[in-house]
Write the structure tokens for this entry.
Amino acid sequence: MQVEEIVHALRKVFPTASIEPGQSPLDEAFVALPANCILAAVKLLVERFDIYHLSTITGQDTGREIELLYHFWAGGGLTLRISLPREGAHLASVTGLIPGAAFYEREVREMLGVAFDGLADQRPFLLPDDWDGGHPLLAHRPEEVPE
């Protein structure tokens, strides 16, 4: 995978954004992006680099923010890391570029409470239709997180 070229292209498209690449020893690159860049970044991966295999979207509540990881694969891993506020978290849906992302976005919406702008299918995905227990993966509260 041409990670350096992708990072260069992302920096060119988002000149004022802080785009921080990282590397892991397992042929996996990580790129941190501002939340408002996700749709254009995925469009760049799909249209310019022919990277459209979104393996999954994972997320976690860090206690201070919601972190989403968009895991792509094209001969190596590329993960886009997005941080969102815990309250009122929302992000553009990438289903217009990668229709299969709907399953992952529905899961993240249900488990972490992230709203995906443009996600057409809002039906429950994993939880029962009558679930009223909140978002199961919002386990930490800011007041419980040590400084």
User: Anything to note?
Assistant: The mean pLDDT is 89.
